[in-house]
Write a structure and sequence with these properties.
Organism: Pedobacter duraquae
Number of domains: 1
Structural class: alpha/beta
InterPro entries: NAD(P)-bd_dom_sf, Sc_DH/Rdtase_CS, SDR_fam
Protein name: NAD(P)-dependent dehydrogenase (Short-subunit alcohol dehydrogenase family)
Helix content: 40-55%
Strand content: 15-25%
Largest sheet: 7 strands, parallel
CATH class: Alpha Beta
Distance between the termini: 37 Å
Shape: globular
Pfam families: adh_short_C2
Family: Belongs to the short-chain dehydrogenases/reductases (SDR) family.
Strand order of the largest sheet: 3-2-1-4-5-6-7
Length: 251
């Protein structure tokens, strides 16, 4: 039997690297999946790449409460109760010292990365099946600081608070709530951050890899493997935890 046989899943940030590779793993393991993201063309391409009738999409801005409520409603109309909610959407902001950090960019990062996670939980939790799994994407930046990324660090620390509160609230329904904390992942977001740290992005990447004991960035699929475990019944006694996947950075 497949690990997610007959399960239903919703993934925000579904057109991004981690969201999309996780969707593929979910579908391979028997789930029906709805992807949520801001850009319809990107979503169309993402769903097409999955080559599965088990995948569909909804366009939504996760920072807008009416759109979050709407994606939750549409997803349950399509799939019924949701077993797995991967609350994954996030943006990186810019790399600037706090004295120069643009206030509008800070507000946007918080709106997407914190308010979007909060509202996802608010509107999706009542529509989830008892015994389900809610997974929030944080970062190693949610566990430690780094210069130049105050908005991103703040947002990724904040969602740990959301996760822990919701884990306690959802426990009577046996819904597990956990956060995942990747090291730098080899994807578009890191290309953006690398160029902010150093105009020579390759040099920035090489420097960051030096502080990772395993000597490299994570692959999106490796994050997807952890999310798949948390989504499956194999994690049925794990809730309220910060699941670190960082190549040893925290050691």
């Amino acid at each position: 039997m497949k690990r997610l046989e007959n399960k239903t899943a919703l993934i925000t940030g579904g057109a991004g690297s981690i969201g999309l590779v996780t969707a593929k793993k979910f579908i391979e393991q028997g789930a029906r999946v709805v992807l949520v993201d801001l850009n319809e063309d990107a979503l169309k391409n993402a769903v097409a790449s999955l080559e599965s009738s088990q995948a569909s999409y909804i366009v939504a801005d996760v920072s807008q409460s009416s759109q979050v409520e709407n994606y939750a409603k549409i997803a349950t109309e399509r799939l019924g109760k949701i077993d797995i909610f991967f609350n994954n959407a996030g943006i990186e902001g810019v790399v600037k010292p706090i004295t120069e950090y643009p206030e509008d960019v800070f507000d946007k990062v918080i709106a997407v990365n914190v308010k979007g996670v909060f509202m996802g939980c608010k509107y999706m939790l009542p529509l989830m099946r008892d015994g389900g799994s809610l997974i929030i994407t944080s970062s190693v930046a949610g566990l430690q600081g780094s210069a130049g990324t105050s908005a991103y660090n703040t947002s990724k620390h904040a969602v740990i608070g959301v996760m822990r509160s919701v884990a306690l609230e959802a426990a009577p329904r046996k819904i597990r709530v956990n956060s995942v904390h990747p090291s730098p992942v080899d994807n578009r977001m890191m290309r953006s951050l690398e160029s902010g740290f150093n105009p020579d992005g390759a040099a920035a990447k090489a420097q960051m890899e030096k502080v990772i004991p395993l000597g490299r960035y994570a692959e999106p699929a490796e994050i997807g493997d952890l999310v798949l475990f948390l989504a499956s019944d194999e994690s049925k006694y794990i809730t309220g935890t910060t699941q670190v996947i960082d190549g040893g950075m925290g050691a």
